[in-house]
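User: Second chain of the day. Same drill as before.
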Amino acid sequence: MKNSIYFIINPLAGNGQSLRVWKKVKHELELNKIEYRSFLTEYSGHAEVLARQVATIQDYHLKTVIGIGGDGTIHEIVNGLSQFTHVQIGFISAGSGNDFARGYALPPAKKAAASILRNLKKQVRSWDLGQYNTGQLDRSFVNSMGAGFDAYVAKLSNEMEIKKILNIFRAGSFIYIFALLKGLKNYQPGDVTLTIDGEEKTYRNVWLTAVSNHPYYGGGMKISPDAKPDDGLLDVILVHNLSRIKLLLLFGLVFAGKHTGLKEVHVFKAKEIKITADAPLMIQADGEYIGETPVTVTLRPKSIKYYT
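Assistant: Same format as last time:
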């Protein structure tokens, strides 16, 4: 089916909220007599497989893929289409954190379908992507990539049973706070060597190093308030030499983006960042645990097309 729209829906996102959204989207499509095909994901990573398969089979006839789900869903779709830069991507957020929607100022789910369908014939903007390489993985991220405490918290949040309950009440973004409080008891900061565009420096007692493509992560925290997904740079935040109590207070400031003035917070802008540590650190990308340091992060300027 050439030149049609393909939808990839994660039915588990938002504890089923994505399916409710999809029902409304289908009604909009049928009302407007728009030809489409849709696929439901069946396992973690399936959205990436589906996106790549559709793009491969359709070759250059494929124009638009629209995802419905959470930040993990858009992460998978973008990686599935990484070699198909002509494909335009739409996304309707129906997950727990929805940082992608915040970072790109996407309309809420109830308006997103109409907005995307209205803009199908318009010029689509190109945006930057981040790329991370651990030696074993070489992949893209759309929101952020972090090493240290935030990756530890991301892993905890995805494993906590309370996440399902919060999603029922559409309060899924609070899972990060629960995981943060739990993780704060056990995590031990360590020494990190950061290489920013070739300049190397070591920091002691580092809690986290976050590399961002736009301001938000962790369900609405404004970790990199000045980050822009089209400025040709990645924003780096490093936090070190904080007591546990002060770190907790810092996360309170992060929601308002008021933390960057603290002496324990270092801010950089760069095109290439390398993170190494004496002891391997957990890494997260777009809120999903992906492995351990060392990791090299680079910018892929204007390499993806999104409807916004």
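DSSP finds nine helices and 17 strands in the chain.

User: Great, on to the next one.
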